[in-house]
Give the backbone structure.
Amino acid sequence: MPLEITAPIETERLVLRPLRPGDLSDVAAYQSRDDVVRYLPWDARTREESREHLARRVLWTRLESDGDFLAVAVELPAGDGGPGRVIGDLSLILTSVAHRQAELGWVFHPDFHGQGYATEAVARLLELAFSDLESHRIFAQLDPRNDSSARLCERLGMRREAHLLNDQIFKGEFADTYIYAILDIEWTTRAAIDG
């Protein structure tokens, strides 16, 4: 039932692995951008703020108890003699062991949008959450104005379960929240159909 990521996991084009302190330049490159954090609950970070944030997240490699947090780097491997690069990161929070539920999140550098990397990475994390963690339901919360994330959820077979109106003050103003989710049986059925 616990899910731990200590070694790299390869997808078709990416490597999912624990974050490392050496990822700072790549992580700071997207955390410092206003267009990246527009729909995230924090403001653009300085390099030092990214360093502090990364120092906490490198420790988050295992899910076992309620509230545990898993942080995963999404790396585009080295190619054509160039170095590998962290193009985003994923989050998985074990919200309830008893109810087998987890919350999913992601952030990607805009230079890599529109190429299917987010779909590929998040799909692999969903596979792990349903198989290794034995999750029953995985959900994502997002700002309805974040069309890219809503489309990602839908590509992954997640369904919009709720549209909460003015449920929070977000960056100084009332804002709505979409909740998308997928059940283990829905994921299994989708995987069988996709072959």
The chain is about 30% helix and 35% strand. The radius of gyration is 16 Å.
